[in-house]
């Protein structure tokens, strides 16, 4: 039988060790994620780790180190699609980036185990756990520091509300006024509102601005014919 002819006890033991290590390391990473009620918890991280380990281990047995390197490349790219599934955008906020990055690391842990790099797999697991736990107080401290809006990089947008009849003509005027105030415009979008008015939203090229100058430019926009309201918004750069 092909199975009996191809079966080698040494290779089988090596596979068992790789999967056990991947399972254990994935459990450690996943347990921390499960405790914090993240989208990808214990089982997901374990499955990612043992799946990556088996693919690499199989390639090692079938095609040697060169084959394993090719499979690792596919694991690295393929896990990105899985990670993208846990990233969600809520308005200007994006959630799930850390969870997706953890899944990527779980795949790396499994790939190391599958390639018989057991020590590297354990070491990487320790670094992943450190990144998700020990750095949390530092992140909290940094978030509480006072920020200077003029020196913090961000994406700025200017919204102008006007009558529907004046909106088309205002598009060029809004861009011209902002350009004159040294706020280059990347794009101006026009949207109809439920109350029959229209909204022009200009996205600025600048990643850092002087708030007082932007306030002055928006104040001038409010005096344009047909404009009923104008304001600016700020969203952090990822």
UniProtKB/TrEMBL annotation:
<comment type="function">
    <text>Virulence factor required for growth in low Mg(2+) medium and for intramacrophage survival. May be involved in regulating membrane potential by activating Na(+)/K(+)-ATPase.</text>
</comment>
<feature type="domain" description="MgtC/SapB/SrpB/YhiD N-terminal">
    <location>
        <begin position="19"/>
        <end position="139"/>
    </location>
</feature>
<dbReference type="Pfam" id="PF02308">
    <property type="entry name" value="MgtC"/>
</dbReference>
<protein>
    <recommendedName>
        <fullName>Protein MgtC</fullName>
    </recommendedName>
</protein>
<dbReference type="InterPro" id="IPR048640">
    <property type="entry name" value="MgtC-like_C"/>
</dbReference>
<keyword id="KW-0472">Membrane</keyword>
<feature type="transmembrane region" description="Helical">
    <location>
        <begin position="68"/>
        <end position="88"/>
    </location>
</feature>
<feature type="transmembrane region" description="Helical">
    <location>
        <begin position="100"/>
        <end position="130"/>
    </location>
</feature>
<dbReference type="InterPro" id="IPR003416">
    <property type="entry name" value="MgtC/SapB/SrpB/YhiD_fam"/>
</dbReference>
<keyword id="KW-1133">Transmembrane helix</keyword>
<dbReference type="Pfam" id="PF21770">
    <property type="entry name" value="MgtC_SapB_C"/>
</dbReference>
<dbReference type="InterPro" id="IPR049177">
    <property type="entry name" value="MgtC_SapB_SrpB_YhiD_N"/>
</dbReference>
<keyword id="KW-0812">Transmembrane</keyword>
<keyword id="KW-1003">Cell membrane</keyword>
<comment type="similarity">
    <text>Belongs to the MgtC/SapB family.</text>
</comment>
<keyword id="KW-0997">Cell inner membrane</keyword>
<feature type="transmembrane region" description="Helical">
    <location>
        <begin position="42"/>
        <end position="62"/>
    </location>
</feature>
<feature type="transmembrane region" description="Helical">
    <location>
        <begin position="12"/>
        <end position="30"/>
    </location>
</feature>
<feature type="domain" description="MgtC-like C-terminal">
    <location>
        <begin position="156"/>
        <end position="232"/>
    </location>
</feature>
